[in-house]
Amino acid sequence: MLEVDNRVIIPERTHTRFVVEGADVIHSYACPSLGIKCDAYPGRLNQSSVYLNREGTYYGQCSEICGILHSSMPISIQSVKLTKFLY
């Protein structure tokens, strides 16, 4: 239940800012292994940043009880080398 159709791919050794917004209800974008937890409210932008030192895949999930399919909302963030990210 951790795999997603489309991963968020970010470059390593680069400061990355996540800007989140909820479309319907309050969600919470959380990836504990990266230390990210950012609430997503409808009609409001919120931000969080991360700096990754190495390549890898990091998993998380929505940590807000947001509805019936709450347990089926995985998050997958993949860090790749900058040269691979650019091409």
Characterise the protein shown here:
There is one protein chain. With 87 residues, the chain is mainly beta. Helix content is 6%, strand content 46%. The protein has 1 helix and 7 strands; from the N terminus they run E-E-E-E-E-E-E-H. The strands form 2 sheets. A 5-stranded mixed β-sheet has the order 1-7-6-3-4. A hairpin with a 4-residue loop joins strand 3 and strand 4 (36-40). The chain is globular. The mean pLDDT is 89.
Quickly describe the structure.
With 87 residues, the protein is mainly beta.
Labels describing this entry:
single chain; two-stranded antiparallel ribbon; globular; 87 residues; five-stranded mixed beta sheet; mainly beta
Number of separate strands = 7
In angstroms, what separates the terminal alpha carbons?
30 Å
What value does the Rg take, in angstroms? Answer: 13 Å
Beta fraction = over 45%
Structural class: mainly beta
- Major sheet size, sense and barrel closure: 5 strands, mixed
Poorly predicted runs: none
Strand order of the largest sheet: 1-7-6-3-4
Q: Tell me, what's the shape?
A: globular
Rounded mean pLDDT is 89
Could you spell the SSE succession in H and E letters?
Answer: EEEEEEEH
Q: Give the number of helices.
A: 1
Percent helix range = under 10%
Topology:
Elements: E1 8-11, E2 15-20, E3 27-31, E4 36-40, E5 46-51, E6 56-62, E7 74-80, H1 82-86
Parallel strand pairs: 1-7
Antiparallel strand pairs: 2-5, 3-4, 3-6, 6-7
